[in-house]
Amino acid sequence: MADSQIDAIGLQCPMPIARISADIKKLESGQTVEVKADDPAFEEDVRAFCRVSGNNLEQIEEIDGIYTAIIKKC
Length: 74
Hints:
- The structure is a single chain.
- By secondary structure, this protein is of the alpha+beta class.
- It has one domain (4-72): TusA-like domain (Translation Initiation Factor IF3).
- It has helices at 15-24, 42-53; strands at residues 4-8, 32-37, 56-63, 66-72.
- A 4-stranded mixed beta sheet has the order 1-2-4-3, covered by helices on one side.
- The radius of gyration is 11 Å and the shape is globular.
- The two termini are 17 Å apart.
- The model has no long low-confidence stretch (mean pLDDT 97).
């Protein structure tokens, strides 16, 4: 289970990433955040966020238009 959860369903770019950015600052290195979003651009956005921020995208999946991502803070 993730250390933190974000429900970004119904939010459009850039709000899911803004929520992740704010939340991940509160975590310690090695902790994880689980994010659920339905923005079609979310997968590309979260991959870019992790690449730029240096955090690890541990998992991403899409089921019925809902993306679930697990990000580990580095």
